[in-house]
Please model this.
Amino acid sequence: MSDRLQELSVFVRVADGGSFSRAARELGLSQPSVSRIIGELETRLDVILLLRTTRRITLTDAGALFLARAREILADIEDAEEAARGLDSLRGTIRLAIPTVYGTREIIPRLAKFMSIHPLVRVELSVADHRQDLVAEGTDVAIRMGDLDDSIFGARKLATLQRMLVASPAYLAARGTPKTPADLAAHDCIFGPRDFGRESWSFSRNSTEVSVDVRGRIHTDSGPGAFASVMAGLGIAMVSTVMAGPEIKAGLLVPLLRGYTLSSIDVHAVFPGGPRPSNKVRALVDFLVEDLKGPAI
Model:
């Protein structure tokens, strides 16, 4: 690797991870070597790119500009190498972040097909429902549900999910079945992560919208936590039709208020590195866009 290419690679890894020691581990270098490379880069450019403190590393304005161009240059080099090898020779690691329930039910089962098409590609999975710091984690692409709040990132819509209310047969036997949205005021509702549950739920029917204030004793930031709670008979939950499908078919959950429509939820692939991801990331996202059009897994 040429000195300047190594400088770019080291700088991007330090900036993304916010750590000299982490960059050193990931690149197989010593921490003093990483510090020396960054120091020599700043000396050659005669500008400070990174501000170092005992707690964190942050980019200067010049560093942020340099980071954007460095990413583009490294992406161009990777694209050129992959073009020379051919699309069937995509290789390298894709760091993929996914939400727990949707990710394990809809994304992970599809990876087998993708990885059989591209046998030289590796995938590092981060599975969590909380909003991770994608840049600090070095994520290449994240699957996110609901409204996007990372406007500086690139994004592509993968799917739109319809939502419904469900409850267990045991809960309904004990508490009764709501017939209208207003009936929910007398029920325990389960509040899950992000857009999966709010204290005011909105419905539409025959072009008329109605909002209902709901209450519940279960609040969780975990998709599996919300799903386990509704399965345990602790209340009524708002879920996507995709994720509740197997349990509904098995009779473990009962769909409610089918004559009313809940707002849908969009699923996006988000690119922390900007709107122009690498070829292997684009290949994965292209694959997911097409494969998610098929039947649920």
Remarks:
- The chain has a mean pLDDT of 85.
- Residues 24 and 30 are 5 Å apart (CA to CA).
- The longest strand covers residues 91-98.
- The two ends are 43 Å apart (CA to CA).
